[in-house]
Amino acid sequence: MLKWALRIGILICPLVLLIGQDIDANITTQNRRSSTVADQISDPAERVAFLALFQNTQPKQMLEQAKLFLARFPQSAFLFQAYEMAARASFGVEDYDAGLNYAKQSLTLLPENPLLLVSVADVEAQKHLNDAAISDARDAVEYLDRFAAPGTVAPESWPELKSKLKATAEFAEGRALLEQAVALPTGEKREALLKDCKVLLAEAQMLNPSDVEVTYLFGLVQLASGDLNSAAGSFARIYRANGALVSKAHENLLNIYKTLDSHDAFEDFVRQAERQDSVSSRSKLAAVGSPSVQLMSDYAGSTSCQGCHSSVYRQWSQTGMSKMLRPYAPQNVIGDFQNDNEFYPEDEAPYRQGTAEYANSPGRTLFARMVIRDGRHYFDIRQSDGKLHAYPVDYTIGSKFQQAYATRLPNGEIHVFPIQYSALQKRWINYWKIIDGALSERSDLHSWERLSAATSYQAVCAVCHTSQLRNVKGGGFDVNNVEFKEPGIDCEMCHGPSAQHVMDMTIDEPYLKPALDPPVNFYDLDNRDFDGVCAQCHMQSAIRASGPSGELNYSRAGEFFQRNLSIPFAEFSRIGFYKDGRFRQTTFIVEALQRSQCFKKGQVSCGTCHDPHGHDAASNPTSVKFRDQPDLMCTNCHSQFQDGASLAGHTHHRVDSEGSRCVSCHMPRIMDAVLFRARTHQIDDIPNAGMTERFGQEESPNACLLCHSEKNAGWVKEKLAGWKPAPQS
């Protein structure tokens, strides 16, 4: 099993790493883009060394190239690839301890790497590191289900490969669980572990029926459970296959044969076990079946909720979600169309660490003037003919930190102007250039007059800014043929289609239903379903696919919201990540939360800290709960820190100081939002002085240095070391 997993990883690994995907884009099955990641490396020597990592397939040469890269470029943004190469190559030359160490370094920088995790779990199980093998195998299976195929794997090849990888991970976990079980005395705990083993290995057998190692391990589990007849069936299958495990299978069959004191000849006993195993296998396959699919109710529209839920409806109406897209009304415009109402491209400055500086440059040329004529708002945009062309504002997009504007063409297409207004900066900006850099089509101001998909509201923005988006002719996102039921994010985008509910309530027929059935009862959802609803808009990595009738951001069968697969994070442009592996941009807010132990092992969800239709939306743009007592977001679970003395002992700061606020250390403001710094949502983030020493504060921002800006990473390391409890003698 180990050699197969390593070989697959070595074959795929070099290919996966040469893909790059734009940040803050509507990523679909149609426009998933490929570009060379190496092109992002500005240092020619580093670029050559990076490409050299993928020129060898022999483990020894791979290891030498990886070591060379790590030694020469210890501050590279691509260390996770180099460490992964070193890990796989070390496994290939059977230096497993070194391989595990390299893998740990890689997974620290990029935890969501199922291909590496499968190999790591397999090695850990072989080395009897059972707890680690179980944890890494489970993560591998979760990520294989969560992420789409690597960009360079042929779509038709991925299902079989994915099945084999999952089977390998389940084999590793089953092996570790079996070893834990047989070390226990007879009792409930042992039986529970063996039962879990059987479930895992039965699944692995279905995923990869030809893998005799899975079958052999399943036989050992059955044997340990005292199910001798079933174990005989598993070993008989291997015995007849006449492979590498035939002698071990034969030995176990003889022992079972003697224990059962069978009166049949040994070969007859084996044939009988084979027949029983075959019948059992067919029964398991027949029991799987196809799940039934529930058709959804119709959509009733937000106003249908107002009658019974008037208070919540009123509060929702004041939130940013309801204002994501609004038909033009003068009172909704927050941009300056009268005074500072001109945009000059030469005034732009690079955006760094949450700020952007601007200056009136000499020789600048006017690109756009935002004006009011006869009470109507317009954009006058200079085009390639040198003239200013006037476009009316027909829609406003957003209402809190920033606002964009769109115009509707005679053919029905809606296009978003390239200039947006920052309410924080009090000026007009080319936001896409800040997010994308200067290379994307939408950041090029002159792409406006082409009115292509790059500026199309329907193709780029509507998936997260409008409700029940649909291509009326079927198919995917398009500048044509796309319509929406309501502008903004309506009640039913989060609670699901509610026409049946409205009808039942109208005739006064209350009914019981599961929490996830529309209208969703969020109070009873687990955190993964809760965040699945929010992830419809707040997950950058989602690959959006259309439904059978052209549904683009909802579903009409099964669950009302789409659980989109994600692009592997290694394929994204590094502009979205710090060099230490943490997410840099708030578009990855759900992905950051999903890395947290509070999410993975606890029940933290978006709703733990945010109220999507709170009573104070106007003064609370981030919709956080407990504004006056922010620690309650954490201490409602971590109740030991509600006591002031315990809190001060944990934080080493005065109880009433900013340094004692949970979010100051564990959710520092390091994520780039719309021209301000937001808190990271990798909640259990802990100041890591070593990373900051390696990459610097700009590429590995340390929470301590956000306050103590006059200090350095060495000072942080010394302080943190002094806070650790003394070792017990």
Q: Can you offer a commentary on this structure?
A:
The protein has 729 residues and is α+β, with helices and mostly antiparallel strands. The protein has a domain at 303-506. It contains 29 helices and 16 strands. The strands form five sheets. Strands 1, 8, 9, 10, 11 and 12 form a six-stranded antiparallel beta sheet that branches. β15 (669-672) and β16 (677-679) form a beta hairpin. The radius of gyration is 29 Å and the shape is globular. The model is unreliable at 14-19 (pLDDT under 50).
Give the C-alpha Rg.
29 Å
Mean pLDDT: 89
Please report which band the strand proportion falls in: under 5%, 5-15%, 15-25%, 25-35%, 35-45% or over 45%.
5-15%
- Report helical residue fraction: 40-55%
User: Which parts are unreliable, with pLDDT below 50 for 5 consecutive residues or more?
Assistant: 14-19
Overall 3D shape = globular
Structural class: alpha+beta
Ends apart, CA distance between termini: 43 Å
Please outline the major beta sheet: 6 strands, antiparallel
Number of helices: 29
- The beta-strand count equals 16
Can you summarize this structure?
The chain has 729 residues and is α+β, with helices and mostly antiparallel strands. 43% of the residues lie in helices and 9% in strands.
